[in-house]
Amino acid sequence: MHITIRQLKVFEAVAGQLSYTKAAAELHLTQPAVSMQIKQLEGAVGLPLFEVFGKKVYLTHAGNVFLVHARRLLEQLRLAAEEMDAIKGIDGGSIKVSIASTVNYFAARLVAKFCQIHDMVRFSLEVTNRKTLLERLEQNQPDIVLMGQPPSDLDVVAEPFMTNPLIVIASTSHPLLASKKPVSVKQLSAERIILREPGSGTRDAVERFFIDKEISPVSQTVMTSNEAIKQTVEAGLGVAIVSIHTVELELAVGRLAHLDVQGFPINRKWYVAHRSQKQLSATAQAFRDFVLVEGREYEKSLAQKS
Ligand code: PGA
Which of 37, 60, 205, 233 is the most buried (most CB within 10 A)? Predict the structure, then answer.
């Protein structure tokens, strides 16, 4: 088979996006250039790899089989590049990190600090929710993932680096703030609760909390970002259960209030994780160690303040 690495990269992008247009945008190519590469690849393979019904692109059976090999080949090539980088040292390397959107509030500072120390490292950062993060892990795409609960059905090496308490937030004029004793879960469930979208790890934890208490919230509103949730709660639409790290600033300046509710905080943890079969490059290993040290230092500084 006379195939080129460029064809493999284009094929992987189209297979990942199931769209020629999106793949072209991802690769900074024109759509005809993408179509041409796929046509040439199909010619070399001798089988159609995609089929189009209506406006939708699907992988054929041959396409699905070929994708497994294409990913392996590209991964192998990346490892070769990483090993060469490792020989050059951490600063010559690159790293692909995916983080859960909730972790971003803390992780953005981590990444900035790491990049200041290793200013030649090429850093690629993707911020997404838990569901997409698990898909990325399954495809063995990122070197390192920062996430909530690691999956039990995937072979991953995961280590906690920080606690992630989920608390209840409300507007500063919320009537329940006047309560002398902690608010009960029943009272909480009578409020409109602003929830993250299905696929969010925070949402999973909140749902599990109510199931454990055998109480269903009366009214729920769904939002796909922590930022939107904070603004809506501040405007008085309802209350929300969020990671304390997403609202540190708003609590400090008095834009949001922390509501004392029985059973809270829900104590979760953040983990630094990677697939077990992943050979971490020197850069990825350095970032992993950095996250573990920084997370623990941060926890220590919080404990000293309280
Ligand atoms: P998420 O965060 O809610 O942004 O998906 C992941 C998690 O905390 O598990």
Answer: 233
Place of tokens 């690769």: 27
Domain count, the chain: 3
pLDDT tens track for 211-263: 999 999 988 999 999 999 999 999 999 999 999 999 999 999 999 999 999 99
C-alpha of residue 69 to centroid of ligand 1, in Å: 31
Testing ligand 1's pocket by substitution, the residue of 98, 102, 194 carrying the most ligand atoms inside 8 A of its CB is 102
In the block, which residue shows the tokens 């993408």? 34
Residue 9, domain extent: 5-73
CATH number of residue 67's parent domain = 1.10.10.10
Centroid of ligand 1 to alpha carbon of 128 (angstroms): 9
Instruction: Please tell me whether residue 46 adopts helix, strand or coil conformation.
Output: coil
Q: What spacing in Å lies between the alpha carbon of 254 and ligand 1's midpoint?
A: 25
The stretches of 28-60 forming alpha helices (DSSP H) are 31-45
Residue 52 lies in a domain: yes
